[in-house]
Amino acid sequence: MFIRMDFILRYQNSVLGFLWVFLKPFLIFLVLLTVFTFFGGDIQHYQVYLLLGIILFQFFSDGTTFGMHSILNKAHVILKIPFSKTSVILAGTLNALLHFFFALLIFFGFLFFNGLYPSFLNILLFLLLIFIEFLFILGLSFFTSLWVISFRDLGQIWEVFLTALFYLVPIFYPLSILPEHLQKILWFNPLSQIIVFSRDLLIYGKTVPSANILYLFIGSSLFCFLGWRYFQNKIQSFTEKI
Amino acid sequence: MIQVKNISKQFLIPHEKRETLRENFLRFFRPRKYEKLQALNQISFNVKQGEWLGIIGRNGSGKSTLLKLLAGIYAPNKGKIHISGKIVPLLELGVGFHPELTVLQNIFFNATLLGLSQKEIEDKTETILDFAELERFKDQQLKNLSSGMQVRLAFAVAMQANGDIYLLDEVLAVGDFDFQKKCGKVFKDLKKQKKTVLIVSHNLENIKKYCDKCIWLENGRVKDDNLPALIIKKYEQ
User: Fold this and answer.
1) Could you count the other beta carbons within 10 Å of the beta carbon of residue A153?
2) Predicted ipTM beyond 0.85
3) Considering A3, A26, A81, B149, which has the largest number of Cβ atoms within 10 A of its Cβ?
């Protein structure tokens, strides 16, 4: 319900309306493609390689930002009627997921256009990776949505962080061009793993060791659960600070 | 049925505004000083099913805070609250109303917040539009309606919320004469249905008219707990 409202709100008066959801990632992709093609080098199918990374990152960026501000945005409602605040966080993240799915449609269009047809199993695994990313974003949002109440500039800090993150995740370059020790550090970021694995699954038709995916799944589920518990515990006291 | 036992609520209001990381960082070594605001202090009262309770007091005496505690928006620092039955908090009419959305969309959103299911909302939409006399405007954006129409709409939705206990926080102060008449009729219905209602109001006539009991709050304490006519006499002095 919140999702519908957010969605309607955001594009109510825009002339392009519904279309923007498709266009935004696509336009970003065009700009980045033009600029970064020369990083491509030996990478096969650089266009889809880049596009996949961008939309997965955009999902993370949108999801965490919406999630973080979701409570404050609904402050006027929260202070007047009791209802499940968890649904507010969930709505923010689902909103980002919706955007992601539209962008994904475009991606698959490009994929098939390039003659790449990932196997059914790989697509399933990719969906699992999306779910993992979703849990991760949700978990983060549970924490940040409360912390931003105490520290209102967290939003701006996060913006800067996301900008930096864009370069710390192998979106437009392959992990291999970095020295070994840096590779190891960047690999700690689940987002890097998700993007690299997704590319392997969908573009290159490789198999990904299921142990890795399992670790990711367990890690993000645990993180999301911890976030949820923290949220349940602290939401009452934070409500008074809104 | 509501049982309130010795509840207290305190707010800590910081002297310094420290809302950002930067401010926290800069003032890390300076201790924070807080103003303790005891909004409610050892409040106890009971309301039986079907009774109407009026809550009066000066501004800042803790009336709204009390309703918020009952509604579940805040939790008391001390004491216990026992409530049996579904609570419909009407602390503000049209909670969640958004001017850019249409009347129908706003009805849906507001009614959902008040606890109605999708099916119930679908069934009741016509009644709501009828009551608010806004059938013609159902697809209009809310911002195109006058504030009086918005209040009518909000009230219409609120009255469809099927609750056992209603909390009204000075929501009837707005509205023209026709609206007040409609409110009167709705109140009569609520009484017939044996609903429990708590009203915070400065309109002492209304309180005398509708309420069985009355509480007078001052500085977070119950100054008096009696029949409306008696308390109001004292209050007016």
Assistant:
1) 14
2) no
3) A81
